[in-house]
Amino acid sequence: xxxxxxxxxxxxxxxxxxxxxxxxxxxxxxxxxxxxxxxxxxxxxxxxxxxxxxxxxxxxxxxxxxxxxxxxxxxxxxxxxxxxxxxxxxxxxxxxxxxxxxxxxxxxxxxxxxxxxxxxxxxxxxxxxxxxxxxxxxxxxxxxxxxxxxxxxxxxxxxxxxxxxxxxxxxxxxxxxxxxx
Length: 181
Prior knowledge:
This protein is α+β, with helices and mostly antiparallel strands. The chain has one domain: Heat Shock Protein 90. The chain is built from five helices and six strands; from the N terminus they run αββααββααββ. The radius of gyration is 21 Å and the shape is globular.
């Protein structure tokens, strides 16, 4: 019976083993290059995802502020232009505000922000599957000088044309794709 090789020694490596070691080193390097996540904020849990992050939050000013800051900085670490990341941060702010207006204070939300090429994808999930944004109301609010709300979705149309709403395990998600600028 042979004894195992000491740690760090390469005893009779096979191509499969070499490939596994190479992939493990590459994964370690990728983890080392990820942007830092924030210190603990009550009502906020953030995880890295491929080329971005996922934030589970309970609606609060500090959680919103932290998520907006991450949205403005994390995409640039993965190659997005700062203007694109700033647009994504504005969209996150607008969508979070809409979710709170629709669902109430302290609503649980999920925010996903990740880079696709040089573009940025933003998804905001809220539990109110039955409360859907109405595009017809957007056009009326954009044309009205007296409308008190509704312009945010019009700007969403300009900054992320083609945004859509889909079902999600949480309720619904609003998905926005921001092209590189």
